């Protein structure tokens, strides 16, 4: 029985890195995060650890309403809700707790971004980019399956999750209004 939900948040900001990735991939959304609740106040991913410093990256707990998202006012997002079982939820929380407890060990896999573009594996211990992280923990939690290894996943690849439910697409700054006036979530 599906009695829990997770939320996948695909986004695009105006950072120089997001512009480069968008240009090279031509993908609409170039970042992905996951949240355990619809408020999206705690979204887990790999990205900037300091919104003002593009060179510091690692495991991050993002907030859709602050940080890099508030810095770039025209940031856009696509949000899906995914029903999961209690067992999957517990496995996912266990994975997230491990990253939270050890967050200082992890770094952003900037080089891995370029290797995924040329379809070459490049793995460094404790280095992840956003979609590599999200796909790996979803696979470890039996929420998502793929023949593709996590280091080859781009954010848009996660749209292949079959039981996802569309929630919202548009400007991030408008999501708070949408979320306040709908009972979809």
How many domains? The number is 1
Question: Low-confidence runs (pLDDT<50, min 5 residues)?
Answer: none
Helical content (DSSP H or I, runs of 4+): 25-40%
On the 0-100 scale, what is the average pLDDT? 87
Number of strands: 8
CATH architecture: Alpha-Beta Complex
- What is the 3D shape? globular
Which CATH C-level class is it?
Answer: Alpha Beta
Total of DSSP H or I helical runs spanning 4+ residues: 6
What is the first-to-last residue Cα distance? 18 Å
The order of strands across the largest sheet is 4-3-2-1-5-8
Class inferred from helices and paired strands: alpha+beta
Reconstruct the topology from this structure:
Layout: E1 4-12, H1 16-25, E2 31-35, E3 43-50, E4 53-62, H2 68-71, E5 76-84, H3 86-101, E6 107-108, H4 110-117, E7 127-128, H5 130-140, E8 165-171, H6 172-180
Parallel strand pairs: 6-7
Antiparallel strand pairs: 1-2, 1-5, 2-3, 3-4, 5-8
InterPro entries: Papain-like_cys_pep_sf
């Amino acid at each position: 029985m599906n009695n829990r939900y997770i939320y996948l948040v695909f986004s695009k900001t105006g950072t120089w890195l997001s512009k480069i990735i968008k240009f090279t991939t031509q993908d609409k959304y170039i970042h992905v995060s996951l949240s355990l609740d619809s408020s999206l106040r705690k979204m887990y991913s790999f990205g900037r650890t300091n919104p003002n410093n593009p060179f510091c990256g690692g495991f991050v707990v993002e907030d859709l309403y602050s940080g890099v998202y508030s810095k770039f006012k025209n940031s856009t997002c696509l949000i899906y809700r995914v029903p999961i079982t209690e067992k999957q939820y517990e496995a996912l929380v266990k994975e997230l707790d491990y990253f939270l407890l050890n967050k200082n060990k992890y770094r952003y896999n900037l080089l891995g971004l370029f290797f995924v573009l040329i379809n070459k594996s490049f793995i460094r211990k404790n280095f992840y980019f956003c979609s590599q992280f999200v796909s790996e923990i979803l696979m470890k939690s039996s929420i998502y399956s793929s023949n593709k290894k996590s280091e080859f996943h781009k954010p848009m690849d996660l749209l292949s999750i079959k039981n996802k439910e569309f929630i919202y697409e548009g400007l991030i700054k408008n999501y708070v209004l949408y979320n306040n006036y709908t009972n979809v979530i």
